[in-house]
Amino acid sequence: MKDFLKKVLAGFVIGVGAIIPGFSGGILAVSMGLYKPTVDAITGFFKAPKKNFKFLFPLAIGGAIGFILFMFLLDRLFEDFRTAVIAVFVGLVIGSCPALMRECLEKGYKKSYPVWSVMGFVLAFTLVILGLVTNAGAPRELTPMLCMISGAIIMSGVLLPGVSISFVLLILGVYENFLAVFTAPPKLFFAARAAGEGLWGSVKAGLATAPFMLWGLLGMVLIAVPVLLLVRKVIDRHHGPAYFTIFGVVIATTIGCMLQETVSLANDPDFVFVWWKALIWAALLAAGALFSLLTEKFMRYNEKEEITAEGQ
Predict the structure, then answer these.
(1) CB 24 within 8 A of CB 159
(2) pTM for the full model?
(3) pLDDT at residue 156 above 80?
(4) Which of 67, 69, 120, 240 is most solvent-facing, going by the fewest CB within 10 Å?
């Protein structure tokens, strides 16, 4: 039971890392020593289904709880404190960069590796600029296909160690609307009840976003195993180039996120700049970076303690 609860808690942390842009569910799994066993359990599930199910089930429970709880929390925070929340997210990414660089250098260094970072940066930043030109930082209206792509991106954020790919949803301008797909049903249900709708009418109102939700879940499911297999093969064979490319993408998307939010504020007719707001945003960014650094340090310390305990 103790091992079961520890895995539930670990899954909870990974689920939170998946939904929070700036955190990486994958790198959290690596820090807890769960990434490789989880990849092996999913990709080789039918080789030992009973054993793999026993390993994955508590992780899935914890991951779902963390993912859903923080989805509702972030939906509320984005509604009232969007720029402040994004400042924290950017700080989390900046604070995770040293850990990502350690992962880049884990299997050595070659002079050609920075070239991969440059290519990753150029590719990602080109997409950022295209997104700004076509969307000017405004939220995009969701379509079934965009929902499916968003679900796939979220799941990739869980499976790809070292980078929060859910951060990409902010760049695409779909993060808030994608959260709303999953958080809207209870709001719509209670709003219909308050308006005097019957039970069936309230249920129908609550299910208004169900088709989009299903498309998002379909994207998550369809992408899981292919991404795991691809990531496992690429990282095993080309660890340095893969992680240096990821590092370039992380830097580009971080700059892009700040640029997009600046454009969004500039286009908001109700926004009035005051110095104390900028000071608060800077403090939140610093707090996010510090929290990310301390979390990663704690994870590494915990990993060392477990290795020491196993060796005794």
Answers:
(1) no
(2) 0.68
(3) no
(4) 69
